[in-house]
Write a structure and sequence with these properties.
The protein contains seven helices and no strands. The protein is mostly helical. The protein has one domain. The two termini are 18 Å apart.
Length: 211
Protein backbone atom coordinates (compact mmCIF):
# COMPACT_ATOMS: atom_id res chain seq x y z
CA UNK A 1 0.00 0.00 0.00
CA UNK A 2 1.44 3.38 -0.94
CA UNK A 3 1.70 6.14 1.65
CA UNK A 4 0.74 9.65 0.68
CA UNK A 5 3.55 12.17 1.05
CA UNK A 6 3.20 14.24 4.20
CA UNK A 7 2.28 17.88 3.88
CA UNK A 8 4.86 20.59 4.49
CA UNK A 9 3.51 21.25 8.01
CA UNK A 10 3.04 17.60 9.00
CA UNK A 11 4.22 16.28 12.40
CA UNK A 12 6.90 14.24 10.62
CA UNK A 13 8.55 17.23 8.96
CA UNK A 14 8.27 19.36 12.10
CA UNK A 15 9.87 16.59 14.15
CA UNK A 16 12.71 16.14 11.68
CA UNK A 17 13.54 19.87 11.65
CA UNK A 18 13.64 19.97 15.46
CA UNK A 19 15.96 16.96 15.55
CA UNK A 20 18.25 18.51 12.90
CA UNK A 21 18.56 21.68 14.98
CA UNK A 22 19.32 19.83 18.19
CA UNK A 23 22.00 17.71 16.52
CA UNK A 24 23.78 20.62 14.88
CA UNK A 25 23.78 22.66 18.09
CA UNK A 26 25.19 19.87 20.21
CA UNK A 27 27.79 18.87 17.63
CA UNK A 28 29.40 22.28 18.08
CA UNK A 29 29.40 21.93 21.87
CA UNK A 30 30.69 18.35 22.00
CA UNK A 31 33.34 18.84 19.33
CA UNK A 32 34.71 21.80 21.27
CA UNK A 33 34.98 19.76 24.47
CA UNK A 34 36.52 16.79 22.63
CA UNK A 35 39.26 19.03 21.25
CA UNK A 36 39.85 20.66 24.64
CA UNK A 37 40.30 17.42 26.62
CA UNK A 38 41.57 15.11 23.87
CA UNK A 39 38.78 12.51 24.00
CA UNK A 40 38.47 10.12 21.05
CA UNK A 41 35.06 8.83 22.15
CA UNK A 42 33.64 12.37 22.43
CA UNK A 43 35.08 13.17 19.01
CA UNK A 44 33.42 10.06 17.55
CA UNK A 45 30.19 10.99 19.31
CA UNK A 46 30.33 14.55 17.97
CA UNK A 47 30.73 13.11 14.47
CA UNK A 48 27.63 11.07 15.31
CA UNK A 49 25.68 14.31 15.81
CA UNK A 50 26.77 15.47 12.33
CA UNK A 51 25.70 12.11 10.95
CA UNK A 52 22.31 12.39 12.68
CA UNK A 53 21.75 15.91 11.34
CA UNK A 54 22.65 14.73 7.81
CA UNK A 55 20.48 11.66 8.21
CA UNK A 56 17.41 13.66 9.18
CA UNK A 57 17.98 16.23 6.43
CA UNK A 58 18.10 13.40 3.88
CA UNK A 59 14.88 11.98 5.31
CA UNK A 60 13.26 15.41 4.94
CA UNK A 61 14.26 15.50 1.27
CA UNK A 62 13.28 11.92 0.47
CA UNK A 63 10.20 11.24 2.58
CA UNK A 64 7.76 12.62 0.00
CA UNK A 65 9.30 10.65 -2.87
CA UNK A 66 8.19 7.31 -4.30
CA UNK A 67 8.82 4.09 -2.33
CA UNK A 68 11.46 3.01 -4.86
CA UNK A 69 13.43 6.26 -4.52
CA UNK A 70 13.10 6.17 -0.72
CA UNK A 71 14.56 2.67 -0.70
CA UNK A 72 17.51 3.83 -2.81
CA UNK A 73 18.14 6.71 -0.42
CA UNK A 74 18.06 4.12 2.36
CA UNK A 75 21.15 2.51 0.83
CA UNK A 76 22.94 5.86 1.00
CA UNK A 77 21.89 6.34 4.62
CA UNK A 78 23.48 3.03 5.54
CA UNK A 79 26.76 4.54 4.37
CA UNK A 80 26.14 7.75 6.33
CA UNK A 81 25.77 5.68 9.51
CA UNK A 82 29.39 4.54 9.11
CA UNK A 83 30.83 8.09 9.26
CA UNK A 84 31.38 8.15 13.05
CA UNK A 85 33.31 4.87 12.82
CA UNK A 86 35.62 6.40 10.23
CA UNK A 87 36.06 9.53 12.37
CA UNK A 88 36.93 7.37 15.37
CA UNK A 89 39.60 5.38 13.50
CA UNK A 90 41.28 8.56 12.23
CA UNK A 91 41.27 10.14 15.70
CA UNK A 92 42.46 6.94 17.39
CA UNK A 93 45.45 6.63 15.07
CA UNK A 94 46.37 10.25 15.78
CA UNK A 95 46.09 9.73 19.55
CA UNK A 96 48.09 6.49 19.64
CA UNK A 97 50.88 7.96 17.54
CA UNK A 98 51.24 11.01 19.81
CA UNK A 99 54.47 11.26 21.78
CA UNK A 100 52.68 11.15 25.15
CA UNK A 101 48.94 10.37 24.92
CA UNK A 102 47.03 11.56 27.99
CA UNK A 103 43.69 10.57 29.48
CA UNK A 104 40.80 13.06 29.11
CA UNK A 105 39.75 15.08 32.17
CA UNK A 106 37.04 13.11 33.94
CA UNK A 107 34.66 15.95 34.94
CA UNK A 108 34.09 17.56 31.50
CA UNK A 109 34.16 14.05 30.00
CA UNK A 110 31.25 12.94 32.20
CA UNK A 111 29.25 16.17 31.99
CA UNK A 112 29.46 16.22 28.19
CA UNK A 113 28.29 12.61 28.06
CA UNK A 114 25.35 13.49 30.31
CA UNK A 115 24.38 16.48 28.14
CA UNK A 116 24.66 14.35 25.00
CA UNK A 117 22.42 11.72 26.62
CA UNK A 118 19.76 14.37 27.31
CA UNK A 119 19.84 15.60 23.70
CA UNK A 120 19.74 12.11 22.20
CA UNK A 121 16.94 11.01 24.54
CA UNK A 122 14.86 13.98 23.43
CA UNK A 123 15.55 13.16 19.77
CA UNK A 124 14.74 9.46 20.23
CA UNK A 125 11.43 10.27 21.96
CA UNK A 126 10.49 12.67 19.17
CA UNK A 127 11.44 10.21 16.42
CA UNK A 128 9.75 7.26 18.13
CA UNK A 129 6.39 8.85 17.37
CA UNK A 130 7.06 9.03 13.62
CA UNK A 131 9.50 6.16 13.02
CA UNK A 132 7.01 4.21 10.85
CA UNK A 133 6.04 7.20 8.67
CA UNK A 134 8.83 6.94 6.09
CA UNK A 135 9.91 3.32 5.91
CA UNK A 136 13.63 2.62 6.33
CA UNK A 137 14.42 6.35 6.31
CA UNK A 138 12.67 7.37 9.52
CA UNK A 139 13.57 4.02 11.09
CA UNK A 140 17.23 4.84 10.38
CA UNK A 141 16.89 8.18 12.14
CA UNK A 142 15.22 6.58 15.17
CA UNK A 143 17.78 3.77 15.42
CA UNK A 144 20.64 6.23 15.23
CA UNK A 145 19.25 8.36 18.09
CA UNK A 146 18.52 5.26 20.16
CA UNK A 147 22.02 3.86 19.69
CA UNK A 148 23.51 7.22 20.61
CA UNK A 149 21.80 7.01 24.02
CA UNK A 150 23.65 3.77 24.79
CA UNK A 151 26.88 5.36 23.62
CA UNK A 152 26.38 8.35 25.93
CA UNK A 153 25.79 6.10 28.94
CA UNK A 154 29.03 4.29 28.09
CA UNK A 155 30.85 7.63 27.82
CA UNK A 156 29.76 8.55 31.35
CA UNK A 157 30.89 5.13 32.61
CA UNK A 158 34.27 5.62 30.93
CA UNK A 159 34.56 9.02 32.60
CA UNK A 160 33.92 7.38 35.98
CA UNK A 161 36.62 4.78 35.36
CA UNK A 162 39.02 7.48 34.18
CA UNK A 163 38.44 9.44 37.39
CA UNK A 164 39.76 6.57 39.52
CA UNK A 165 42.21 5.12 36.97
CA UNK A 166 43.66 7.82 34.72
CA UNK A 167 44.21 6.05 31.40
CA UNK A 168 43.48 6.53 27.72
CA UNK A 169 41.93 3.06 27.42
CA UNK A 170 38.39 3.59 28.83
CA UNK A 171 37.97 6.41 26.30
CA UNK A 172 39.29 4.21 23.48
CA UNK A 173 37.13 1.20 24.41
CA UNK A 174 33.97 3.32 24.41
CA UNK A 175 34.97 4.81 21.05
CA UNK A 176 35.24 1.29 19.67
CA UNK A 177 31.77 0.54 21.01
CA UNK A 178 30.31 3.63 19.33
CA UNK A 179 31.86 2.56 16.03
CA UNK A 180 30.43 -0.97 16.42
CA UNK A 181 26.91 0.33 17.21
CA UNK A 182 26.89 2.44 14.06
CA UNK A 183 28.19 -0.41 11.92
CA UNK A 184 25.38 -2.65 13.21
CA UNK A 185 22.75 0.04 12.54
CA UNK A 186 24.15 0.53 9.04
CA UNK A 187 23.78 -3.20 8.36
CA UNK A 188 20.16 -3.19 9.61
CA UNK A 189 19.21 -0.18 7.49
CA UNK A 190 20.90 -1.66 4.41
CA UNK A 191 18.87 -4.84 4.80
CA UNK A 192 15.61 -2.90 5.36
CA UNK A 193 16.27 -0.73 2.31
CA UNK A 194 17.06 -3.80 0.21
CA UNK A 195 13.73 -5.35 1.21
CA UNK A 196 11.82 -2.14 0.43
CA UNK A 197 13.66 -1.78 -2.88
CA UNK A 198 12.68 -5.31 -3.92
CA UNK A 199 9.06 -4.76 -2.86
CA UNK A 200 8.86 -1.44 -4.71
CA UNK A 201 10.31 -2.89 -7.91
CA UNK A 202 7.97 -5.87 -7.68
CA UNK A 203 4.98 -3.55 -7.24
CA UNK A 204 6.06 -1.43 -10.21
CA UNK A 205 6.55 -4.48 -12.41
CA UNK A 206 3.27 -5.97 -11.29
CA UNK A 207 1.34 -2.91 -12.38
CA UNK A 208 3.12 -2.68 -15.71
CA UNK A 209 4.76 0.66 -14.84
CA UNK A 210 8.19 1.73 -15.94
CA UNK A 211 11.09 0.82 -13.71
Amino acid sequence: MSVAPPSADSPLRTTLWIVVGLNIAFFIAEFSVALAIGSVSLFADSADFVEDATLNLLVLVAVGLSPLVRARVGFALAGVLLLPAVAFVVTLVHKLTAAAPIAPEAAPFALTGLAALAVNTACALLLARVRHAGGSLTRAAFLSARNDMFANIAIMAAAGVTAVWPSIWPDIVVGLGIAALNADAAKEIWEAARGEHGAARGSTGGTGGAA
